[in-house]
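User: Okay, second chain of the day. Same drill as before: sequence in, structure tokens out.
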Amino acid sequence: MIEAYALVLGALMLLCGALADRYGRKRLFIVGTAVFAIGSLACAFAGSIEALVAARVLQAAGGTMLAPASLAMLSACFEGEARGKAIGTWSAFTAITSMIGPVAGGVLLDHAGWRWIFGINLPVAMVAIGLAVLHVRESRDEELRGRLDVGGSALVTAGLGAVVYAFIEASVSGWGATRVRVAMPAGILLLAAFWWWEGSVAEPILPRRLFASRAFSGINLMTFLLYAALGALFYFLPFVMIQVDGYSGTVAGAAMLPFMVLLVLLSRLAGALVYRIGARATLLAGSLATAGGYAAFALLGDLRYWESIFPATVLVGIGMGLTVAPLTTTVMESVRDTEVGLASGVNNAVSRVAGLLAVAIFGFLLAAVFNARLDQRLSVTSLQPVARAQVEQQRSALSGAVVADPAARAIVFDSYKDGFRAVALACAGLAILSAATAQLTLRTVKPA
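Assistant: Same drill. Structure tokens below.
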């Protein structure tokens, strides 16, 4: 359910960035918001997991339209330092809604049911459409001609889908499974074909010329690394808090507030700092702070909230607060004004694809560490045969295993925490690579 949404959102973001530039950013935003609302309604009334996955695909199709269009509309209205501040404000409001979302979702989950998590999107979408109609001017690239790159969209969607499927299936069946051995090379070949295709068509959704810019390439690599780490860690953290530590959904959602508050407070400042001290210094500091936060998740305490989760979340919030707006600002400054929709689509796609792949790849990492540590603990611990059988039968459920014996349950939970710590350390490594990328690719002191 989660990966289907992320796959569509990431793979079609490029096409929708081109659509926004070609047919109008305001128009695409309104259509995308309406489609997202319809998809949300379908999710709320889904009668089976298959119907829910299908509705999530529709919801993601709407999201791919509104996400790049919203930022491109903003960039078309501002220039220079004002654009940096505007993008910082946009990032702050994005963070505010992201801050409200987990808390509201937790409350709805605990007291009303999961369907209301989707239903609440409808009034929000209606307000967004109304504001766009009344207050946003239309903008587009009048020079664009030619056909849309539907073939490229199909290749990247199929390629990413096959790779993600392979990692998810490998975490359950192992790399020797026939489906994994077929899906992984097929996905790699399809992605290679996508890259070749983009160099051979007249109007590619991912023009190679954009990557001739050192800044554009570096910023998108940083985006991939940072959002992969962010997506993986905050995907798995609620499992630790709810299933292992026993917190409610409301509390688990509220635990993200320090991160979101810091993101709101620092985004506008960081967007303006790009034009004062330069993108490299701001992004270097932010990436290193983020790396420290991820390392803290792995090294501090026993993953209880105040001892480890809270301080680690604060560090990640400071780091990402210093990076989100500068990442976006530098991407927009590295292309022509007529290409801001395309650049926005590429950068959004990179961040979405990063999260998509991270959940699959780090899910495999977590499962591998979990199984290894579970085997170690089972080999040195005396359990009743019934309890041992329960653990073995539900091994694939990870922290969701239902085990009656307290000692067996503790073994499962401790093994899951070890897997989560491995993920956190890997995320710290990605953030350090992001800092290295900033140092190596952002040579100018300030954006051109």
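The radius of gyration is 22 Å.

User: Thanks, on to the next one.
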